[in-house]
């Protein structure tokens, strides 16, 4: 058990799905503090389902999800909110919130019954604003922001929640290449500097290979997990897409279209 | 939540406006009472014409307090619904809550005597009217809530609310067709809406219902703020969805149902006031919004009631008509000006 102590998140033999419909079976991986991990796989393979299961939004079918060595189900919603934060694909319900108001909502698990912000809360909010370059936008309403800015605000909110684990569902969709790289680099910094464990789903496999510490490939069978270079050496990316359409080039870490 | 500005001055101004409209409300009516006389009556002196004292103390002041309770409570219920349903067009009237209350009231006022064969209203009393209307609004609110769980589309939800309105008004028509003229008249007067004619006991009952509704809303402030992000985010922030949703629904049902029971279905206050409030108090923080929305609603209701009470004439216009005449253009104006209504 000494080895497991370092693990923030340990997944063993996990099956996910909805009721009688199993989406993915036998998922195994461990994540330590300070690791940035990307989850890749084709559409419909269960990336979002995995994230929803890990986030406690839907029950697992089988297996173990250990957060700091404790089963996820044992956490109450209050204690879980201090250990796990999420960035979902859904937009915030009210876009009339200002950037600062939205980020401040991340401090809810720590505030009193009226939601009064203490000095420490305000420092955390400021730190999140700084880390995601949002200082100048702090009083802007969310409906005034571009997609890239809004995504930064949502990640900053998760950072303000100050949890050891952050789950993000497709944080790079709808963004151009520059903003994709920007978000992922910011996540990498957050993971390495603040020792947060960050797990995100993405379709940007080439960027994930360059920036992630670990990658989990959902392929419907073995779900290989490991260091990106290691996965390339073991030719796991080659099998991701049908080879007559797209081929993976291990030397450059990129995909080529077969014409 | 982070409130960027302090709204102390605007808030003081609102309180002042409430006092002014309260004075305006009690100084206008079918009998014209000079301002100085009115002040002395308020300070407990007996004027030359003793009936003035009764008019002020027994009629106008209870009516003004009813207006405050009705306006404040309906506006608060509108705010709660807009946050809970994540829908800027939600309100007690739009979602069919008022129609539910109408059906409850109609069943009591017309249905019971129809079934039992005698006019039962005097026998049943006013408390039963409040209970019937509240049950009606609670039922509709619960059904809308269940539908809202399945239908994520906000437009669909509004249309369902409108359909409920049609169904209830159809049922009311059927009841009306078979009931006696006397019962029908009673129901129609109730549906005009009125903030006058409440006895002290009724006022106390209404006051307690509104107080409970307000207290439940205050307890829910934190979860209301979290709901602004959506339910999944709220859950991830440690909000117990079932518990807080139930609490907000009970608060809404008590406020909208209880008020509709006593004052009749009053349109547009619940929908329009939260949007009007945000014109000045441009924040989503419910800690700020709850008191200001209530103040705004109370002021609007006092002014509408003053308008309904045509100066120096004995006739009183139906308050429901006045709030619609004021409220509907406001909603249209907001939509046209901002293009998109947001909450």
Automatic annotation (TrEMBL), chain A:
Superkingdom in the source lineage = Bacteria
Q: Which GO terms describe its molecular function?
A: ATP binding
Keywords from the named record: ATP-binding, Nucleotide-binding, Transport
Q: Which residues form the ABC transporter domain?
A: 9-244
Assigned protein family: Belongs to the ABC transporter superfamily.
Q: Which PANTHER family match?
A: METAL TRANSPORT SYSTEM ATP-BINDING PROTEIN TM_0124-RELATED, MOLYBDATE IMPORT ATP-BINDING PROTEIN MOLC
- Output this protein's name: ABC transporter ATP-binding protein
**Which organism is this protein's natural source?**
Flagellimonas yonaguniensis
TrEMBL record, chain B:
Tell me the membrane topology, using the record's own terms: Multi-pass membrane protein
Tell me yes or no: is Transport among this UniProt entry's keywords: yes
Cellular location(s): Cell membrane
Keyword vocabulary terms for this entry = Cell membrane, Membrane, Transmembrane, Transmembrane helix, Transport
Known InterPro entries for this protein? Answer: ABC_BtuC-like, ABC_transptr_permease_BtuC
Transmembrane region(s): 93-115, 127-148, 155-178, 203-225, 246-268, 288-308, 315-336
Record's family? Belongs to the binding-protein-dependent transport system permease family. FecCD subfamily.
Q: Which PANTHER family match?
A: FERRIC ENTEROBACTIN TRANSPORT SYSTEM PERMEASE PROTEIN (PTHR30472), TRANSPORT SYSTEM PERMEASE PROTEIN (PTHR30472:SF41)
Q: What is this protein called?
A: Iron ABC transporter permease
